[in-house]
Amino acid sequence: MSSCFNGGAGWPEPVVRVQAVSDTCGETIPERYVKPPNERPSTTTPQPAASSHGISGPNIPVVDMSMPDSEETARAVEAACREWGFFQAVNHGVRPELLRRARSSWRGFFRQPAEVRERYANSPTTYEGYGSRLGTAKGGHLDWGDYYFLHLLPSSIKSHDKWPDLPSTLREATEEYSEDVVKLCRTVSSLMSRGLGLDGGRLHEAFGGEGGEGACLRVNFYPRCPQPDLTLGVAAHSDPGGMTMLLVDDHVRGLQVRKDGQWITVDPVPDAFIVNIGDQIQVLSNAAYKSVEHRVTVSAAEERLSLAFFYNPRSDVPVGPMPELVGPESPAMYPEMTFDEYRVHIRQRGLSGKAHLQSLQSFRSAASS
Ligand SMILES: O=C(O)CCC(=O)C(=O)O
């Protein structure tokens, strides 16, 4: 058990791997993982059960990326981003074989002995590596999940030495996967721009243009949990970056999206990417597109793996509402801030609902009053 602790790496308390907790805690989870009653999944209004073929309750839209009319695709993406901030992209062009290889390589990492995993233990300075908590607030509630975080773009900060060397398939699979997913992000970014009535390259330009964009990957691993009604795999948050391409296990549900005050459980379409707007695109679009709160529930019966690919603006480019979207009827809702500046808050406080974006908005109101 001692190899599952990672003290002295800059965290305020020794870090315990949730995998180790799951293996040893029996029927009762430690107090640190028990969420306050109003945050527990069990207090959520139940959603109608999904049928085996589809969903009987509301669910996030599905967008077919292979439609021959790209205007129609742009309209579907726009509607989803305005109304839900989320959609599932199907027929997206990334090979199912590659999706499976990426998933199985990362599952393989979380199945390595603890001493192999611990070689990559992370610190709160960059978060890069194997981790078990977000945020450095002492004594806070913890999420029921471990993760691996790594940088992909700009290539100057990508370092294979910081990626696991086991299983042996992992580095090549992650490299290939990230190349294909970046291409998909560029396609989706162009559709999102057009949906705003702008040139297809406008968001890409606002992200820093050719070679400017940033990308990183967080692979989440949620072990089985004996009391899933009391905890969450990831607490409610919006994504701080530009957009997220999420690949989840086809057969295990867990992601919930907040819509009109209700938590909607997403039914994953096999091999789809779940795409969502992050805070930076909400700011650039002057709140036309929504960066929506989501969270993850865990299961007593099955572990779950997800790959969250974050596509971000260049870290030192000022990000504010795009001037074309600002006018007398739609004043700028946010001040300009670089993604690096924005990230500083998140790294200190961890993910917390929509608090970061709301604090930007109050900064704007205070500045203009
Ligand atoms: O695991 C999931 O379904 C979502 C993960 C997520 O929200 C995140 O990594 O930010």
TrEMBL record:
Keywords: Iron, Jasmonic acid signaling pathway, Metal-binding, Oxidoreductase, Plant defense. InterPro entries: DIOX_N, IPNS-like_FE2OG_OXY, IPNS-like_sf, Oxoglu/Fe-dep_dioxygenase_dom, Plant_2OG-oxidoreductases. Its cofactor is L-ascorbate; Fe(2+). It catalyses: jasmonate + 2-oxoglutarate + O2 = (1R,2R)-12-hydroxyjasmonate + succinate + CO2. Residues 40-54 have a biased composition (Polar residues). It comes from the Eukaryota. Pfam families: 2OG-FeII_Oxy (PF03171), DIOX_N (PF14226). Residues 29-60 are annotated as: Disordered. One of its GO terms (molecular function) is jasmonic acid hydrolase. Residues 29-38 have a biased composition (Basic and acidic residues). One of its GO terms (biological process) is regulation of jasmonic acid mediated signaling pathway. The keyword Oxidoreductase applies. Residues 212-313 form the Fe2OG dioxygenase domain. Belongs to the iron/ascorbate-dependent oxidoreductase family. This is Fe2OG dioxygenase domain-containing protein. It comes from Lolium multiflorum.
